[in-house]
Amino acid sequence: MSTKRYTSHDPELNSLYTQLAEHDLQPLWEMQGLLTKTPTVQTVPHRWSSTDLRRLAARSGDLVPIDRGGDRRVLALSNPGLAGAPYISSTLWAAVQFLLPGEMAPAHRHTPAALRFILDGDGVYTVLDGDPVTMARGDLVLTPAWSFHEHHNPGKKSMVWLDVLDLPIVAGLDAVFFEEGTSEKADQSAAERSTSERLYGQGSGLVPVGVDGPQPAHSPLTVYRWASTDQALTRMLEQSGTGQAHLRFRDPTRDRDVMPTLRCEMRRLRAGAKSGRERQTGSRVCAVLSGTGQADIDDRTFPLAAGDIFVVPSWSVHRLHADEDLDVFITSDAPVLEKLSLYRSEALDA
Amino acid sequence: MSTKRYTSHDPELNSLYTQLAEHDLQPLWEMQGLLTKTPTVQTVPHRWSSTDLRRLAARSGDLVPIDRGGDRRVLALSNPGLAGAPYISSTLWAAVQFLLPGEMAPAHRHTPAALRFILDGDGVYTVLDGDPVTMARGDLVLTPAWSFHEHHNPGKKSMVWLDVLDLPIVAGLDAVFFEEGTSEKADQSAAERSTSERLYGQGSGLVPVGVDGPQPAHSPLTVYRWASTDQALTRMLEQSGTGQAHLRFRDPTRDRDVMPTLRCEMRRLRAGAKSGRERQTGSRVCAVLSGTGQADIDDRTFPLAAGDIFVVPSWSVHRLHADEDLDVFITSDAPVLEKLSLYRSEALDA
Amino acid sequence: MSTKRYTSHDPELNSLYTQLAEHDLQPLWEMQGLLTKTPTVQTVPHRWSSTDLRRLAARSGDLVPIDRGGDRRVLALSNPGLAGAPYISSTLWAAVQFLLPGEMAPAHRHTPAALRFILDGDGVYTVLDGDPVTMARGDLVLTPAWSFHEHHNPGKKSMVWLDVLDLPIVAGLDAVFFEEGTSEKADQSAAERSTSERLYGQGSGLVPVGVDGPQPAHSPLTVYRWASTDQALTRMLEQSGTGQAHLRFRDPTRDRDVMPTLRCEMRRLRAGAKSGRERQTGSRVCAVLSGTGQADIDDRTFPLAAGDIFVVPSWSVHRLHADEDLDVFITSDAPVLEKLSLYRSEALDA
Amino acid sequence: MSTKRYTSHDPELNSLYTQLAEHDLQPLWEMQGLLTKTPTVQTVPHRWSSTDLRRLAARSGDLVPIDRGGDRRVLALSNPGLAGAPYISSTLWAAVQFLLPGEMAPAHRHTPAALRFILDGDGVYTVLDGDPVTMARGDLVLTPAWSFHEHHNPGKKSMVWLDVLDLPIVAGLDAVFFEEGTSEKADQSAAERSTSERLYGQGSGLVPVGVDGPQPAHSPLTVYRWASTDQALTRMLEQSGTGQAHLRFRDPTRDRDVMPTLRCEMRRLRAGAKSGRERQTGSRVCAVLSGTGQADIDDRTFPLAAGDIFVVPSWSVHRLHADEDLDVFITSDAPVLEKLSLYRSEALDA
Fold it and tell me: Looking at the domain assignment, is residue B29 inside a domain?
């Protein structure tokens, strides 16, 4: 008997419940909380401070070689509501990754999709299916599902960045596959521009003709450089006149998000601005690139500083306030919710 | 401290692990089994026999009124691998529902999508957003996400049917919403054909013009009648010459499955036929409408008879054998896997 | 000098115009009617009577063997506004085709797409890329672009039907290709149901799984039988309560018209009903399957009887009146206009 | 009798032909050239030299005020094969437009879509539905269907540019609509960046969030600046290593061409390079932005210099040779052919 056995004071019903359990059946009418008016969410709002993250990442660098037990020196942000699971929310994995000078995190690939957002520093490059991509502050680097990737730090400085994966979703769908690759001791350098950027990253709406190959499920542009993002935010602010700009990173060749499961966005708030209160289904991971301010999430308030990372649970009401000009990177599972027709959003101040 | 605390014999490392736990962080290099070569699946292959299901459903009818604790008299098929969760697989809910003569299961709606497949009997009708739909053996009836639905049994016989929902997926995405409706004591009858059938169920490729309204996320045809399904299987058998026919239920107006999260199919095997061994990511619930045979799932073999229900876990190798002509209804989460680019399939005899 | 030479009383301008013409240039400011407030349409409303069409088709059968000069015994309906062009409208070809007992129109294919609508009789079958399709009253048979097709009359009666092609559009785009095929002296019979029908014509929303092959640009269902169409109209009338039913023939597997360039529809008006006045961009060919009534097109009125064919020019206001129950088949270039974002429509009584 | 009357030496047939003509019918078996093995194309290959175009445009500026008879001072390139029609090909209108200092071409809109490619100069700005867009050498400026547009030359120099429209296609579909707008005596200046550029023209894949409004049928980015295009070509050359780069201008937010009917591309060939011989259905207008070389089109060869414009008819074999580094802008009706499943292409050297 492997299922849950319900009990009843009514002997006949109790006897039925025994039989049900013996046949791997459960009575719906005894269950609680299956269908609730609004989502029952275990993920809680939380913020990890930049100071703690950097200190503990550095300490891990002192103590743990890159090859101890795994391929990556990574600290997973574990949501306090999730009973010890190493996930920042019910649907997302977030972590800080730390690489010392001269280190290399070897090649592998997996069906969970990943992205890196660089909160500080530079010097590391990632090789994505053979294409080396340098990483620097403010850059967004994609590691789409089933792409081989490895990280090299040929420089003199250690580097830390934010990793986000859709691992809980892929694991929940029983669809995790993993494969190790072969990292040759590659030349310890990367060109200023990756192949992906040369072909797809030049100008808005300019797409190469005659580049063949299978249609990928993700953006063919795998890195979004901060210089571009920053300029776009500046121009949107010029245009909007509201002190707020909000952009989405997209596949430049198709009408879709950068990867099938993850949406990426950037918000800029001028000092003194605050965003409207809103909520959505699906959870979001946010990282402060620069500035100070605060995040209100349901009835919690978190002060924000550069390098902080925080999580907004599904259907939580949230808003941002900028004390100084504030740049926040946001990634979420919104494409999943949208594709399954489960996305709901509400603007509470509208 | 709410997260998992790792330990180490190395005192420095152990001290780091304490600090990590205090800051809701976990060291990746200590984790096992996060990224596995192929999916780690808890769902196990299992079959529920028609005899048991009917007997226990009827016994529930004797003992439990329709309004005890909930709106529905439903026995959930609980997978032995899932530690007592009331789910048939990691992603699907399956249950038998039982309605006595004169009973009514009142109106509600929820974001999890549901479908009914009728293994036997008739006499009940469902009201779907105001449109009454009769239910009889072999029919597939949809209850798309957020559609009000209620069940009426105005006849003299009790009736039992199979319910399948995507509840684990929607719950895992923190996107369950629920609302009670108002069931008026409606006239105790339903027309032979629902509005949905008159408009969308007449002939292949014939679609009404001038029927306005919002574009639904699901098929506008909400019932697929057995007479049509049976005839289609017969014609496909004529055509194929292999003793096997396989059809998919689809939105007749668009290039998509019947609902955003659930695929529905029907297979017919002539006596003596057996299907090729195959596997896919995502799990599937199968119900035997008629015939006898067996299902091989990984290293298990289950005898099959009319009314039996069985589950195929993600990435399990499976095949069907028909002793007598065998008709099997199959529903799966394949649209979810496909939309997220996580669908993989393999034909092992090809 | 091959272009038009404009002239002017102003000698300098006249001299410029000479030079322009010498260099294959024309001055816009001298042109008239290029950009008009509403479309300047040469196609005029017109009706061809069934009596004339049948008599002249039969007379052609007496005098012209099937192989005289061409492959087909076809009379093209030539719009009186089009200066002798053999087209029923600026964008459509329509014709009656006549086949004597024992005759065969040999196989060929072409990039213009064709359809047949059978106004009367039966006995002929068409072979579409190897799949024989019987033809009878009320059936719509597709001959998609670049499909080999041939017509056989193995019976004892001659047969006549309506052909519609998108030839003017394809010719205007300089995209006409043509190829002769090989017609073997096939067995002089066709099965009751074509392969296309067995696979795609059974029930609304039922689609075969495992039928491989390239994705065609058109509906995989190539014949829509009158029995189905008639029943669908009947059910829609039950539903609508307005005395009018209107259906569209669609690809049953995708969200699109039957072919990339041609839309097909059927309207039924109960005796006494009249449709609302409407107009659209693009032209339409209409054929009366049964009943009597009249068509108002701009300021013209045409009496209608079974077998009559009429044309509605682009942007003409039109409506139908039924004296007796009226069934009208309609085909148009609407998919072309829609794909190019040039479709406009107006309901003038709304 | 308004249709063509065929004749025959056979008196019976001749009598039938009389009757056919009286009833607006034509016998297919007497027609020639309707369905040809490959397209019968009237458009001929042709080139207009920059020297002639500029001289005659300037001369028109001397003699013709902007308001004579029409709104625009435009010289239409008239294909020598098209019997005096003012079209550069069977499907495209191309022209040079000339605006003197201080002139203004007033606002109007029409369903034919237009684009401007600037071969030389600067100083004019176009106002597109209220958004002023400056124009300079190498820029591509869209005037999508039914957008109000007007041109202002507030500077001290006259300016000339290339206009291309899909007018023959829209006229052939009887879908030309036209409306005059109101041009206020706007401030005689335009900002460096249009609203369209600020929102959609910043970086590849960066799209604003929260910009509402109806979904247009065309790219929301209405100007593609030469600086971007030039840089993209440079990077593609770095990448390709073949001495050739080829890019397409696209809607940066969706998987489609810039407008529903027109494709825009740019090719760069290093000195000495030549492209492979190819052909396509549909016609193309090409303009040399810089460099020298030659175009082979079927059996014709045209020398090319900056400012030259040439036309490639449907299904003509064509190739480019660069003597000096050659930049060529190309626009075609390929989206129309593709949407109607009539696009064919062939690489003859592959």
Answer: no
**What is the rounded distance in angstroms from the CA atom of residue B95 to the CA atom of residue C96?**
59
Q: What is the pLDDT of residue D189?
A: 76
Residue D126 lies inside a defined structural domain of this protein: yes
Which of chain C's residues have a Cβ under 8 Å away from the Cβ of B195? 239
Interchain contact, B248 vs C207, CB within 8 Å: yes
Closest CA to A308 of A109, A162, A101: A162
CATH number, domain with residue A75: 2.60.120.10
HSE, CB side, 13 Å, CA atoms: give it for residue A313.
23
C-alpha to C-alpha distance for C259 and C144, rounded to whole angstroms: 7
Residue A227 tokens read as: 């210089």
pLDDT digits 0-9 by tens, A91-146:
999 999 999 999 999 999 999 999 999 999 999 999 999 999 999 999 999 999 99
Q: Smallest Cβ distance to B221: which of C198, C205, C209?
A: C205
Query: C260 touching D, CB under 8 A?
Result: yes
State which H helix or E strand residue A311 sits in: strand A309-312
- Number of compact structural domains in chain B: 1
DSSP for residue D9: S
Does an H or E element contain C54, and which? helix C50-63
> Do the domain assignments include residue A39?
no
pLDDT of C72: 87
Q: In this structure, are strands A244-249 and A159-165 parallel, antiparallel, or unpaired?
A: unpaired
State the sign of the Cα–Cα–Cα–Cα dihedral A144, A146, A147, A151: positive
Contact of A201 with chain D, judged by CB distance below 8 Å, is answered with yes
Report the C-alpha gap between C158 and D136 in whole angstroms: 68
d(C-alpha C30, C-alpha C15), whole Å: 15
Q: Cα-flanking dihedrals φ and ψ of residue B152, to 5°? A: -120, 135
Contact A198/D at CB under 8 A: yes
| Model pLDDT, residue A1 | 55
Cα distances (Å, whole numbers) of residue A14 to A10, A30, A31, D7: 6, 12, 15, 97
Amino acid at C279: R
How far apart are the CA of D18 and the nearest CA of chain A, in angstroms?
A: 56
Tell if the CB–CB gap between C23 and D60 is shorter than 8 Å. Answer: no
Search chain D and give the residue with CA nearest A222.
Answer: D205
Residue B46, chain A, CB below 8 Å: the answer is yes
Nearest to A281 among B25, B91, B175 (CB): B175
Could A25 and B77 be called an inter-chain contact, meaning their C-beta atoms sit closer than 8 Å? yes
Please give, rounded to a whole number of angstroms, the shortest distance from the CA of C75 to a CA of chain B.
Answer: 30
Task: Give the pLDDT band of residue D191 (cuts 50, 70, 90).
Answer: confident
Calculate how close chain B gets to A148, using CA atoms only, in Å. Answer: 14
State the DSSP H helix or E strand holding residue A240, giving kind and residue range, or none if neither.
Answer: helix A226-240
Helix residue ranges, H only, D207-272: 226-240
Q: Give me the mean pLDDT over the B303-307 stretch.
A: 98
Asked if the Cβ–Cβ distance from B177 to A29 is below 8 Å, we say no
Stated pTM of the model:
0.96
Is the CB of residue A278 less than 8 Å away from at least one CB of chain D?
no
**Are the Cβ atoms of D204 and A200 closer than 8 angstroms?**
yes
Beta-bridge partners for D117: D140, D162
What tens digit of pLDDT does each residue of B188-240 get? Answer: 678 889 999 999 998 999 999 988 777 899 999 999 999 999 999 999 999 88
Q: Does ipTM top 0.90?
A: yes
Question: A interface mutation test: which of B342, B343, B345, B346 has the most A CBs within 10 A?
Answer: B342
Tell me the three state secondary structure of residue D220. Answer: coil
Give the span between the Cα atoms of D58 and D62, in whole angstroms. 6
Cross-chain Cβ contact B75/A46 below 8 Å: no
Q: What is the pLDDT of residues A37-72, one digit of tens each?
A: 999 999 999 999 999 999 999 999 999 988 654 578
By residue range, what is the domain housing residue A143?
Answer: 46-202+218-345
Asked if the structure places residue A135 within a domain, the reply is yes
The nearest alpha carbon in chain A to B37 belongs to A178
